[in-house]
């Protein structure tokens, strides 16, 4: 949830946080399912924006969560 707080428009510099998440050597997201408390379209769009850029540039992402793989779309969306 700290990541999502930093990405919000009222955060310090959401564009810089997004860019850092997109371009760091390894992005580690701990307890991704914690965001399920508010799996809003906004949250899903931010994740897509980060994941898509990383996928396009073949950058790794390490994710932990307490959700089974077949239920992960409920947290991060279908895309």
Please supply descriptive tags for the structure shown above:
79 residues; 4 helices; mainly alpha; 2 strands; globular; two-stranded parallel ribbon
Report on the structure:
With 79 residues, this protein is mainly alpha-helical. It has one domain (2-69). The chain is built from 4 helices and 2 strands. The protein has a two-stranded parallel ribbon with strand order 1-2. Helix 2 (14-23) packs across helix 3. The longest helix is centred in the middle third of the chain and has 16 residues, at 41-56.
What's the helix and strand layout?
Elements: H1 2-7, H2 14-23, E1 27-29, H3 41-56, E2 61-63, H4 73-76
Parallel strand pairs: 1-2
Concise description?
Helix content is 46%, strand content 8%. The chain is mainly α and 79 residues long. A two-stranded parallel sheet has the order 1-2.
Largest pleated sheet: 2 strands, parallel
Number of helices: 4
Distance between the termini: 20 Å
Rg over CA atoms: 12 Å
Order of helices and strands: HHEHEH
Query: How many separate domains make up the residues?
Result: 1
Task: Tell me the structural class.
Answer: mainly alpha
Q: Let me know the number of strands.
A: 2
Oligomer: single chain
What is the average of the pLDDT values? 84
Helix content: 40-55%
Low-confidence stretches: none
Shape: globular
Beta content comes to: 5-15%
- What order do the strands of the largest sheet run in, or round the barrel if closed? 1-2
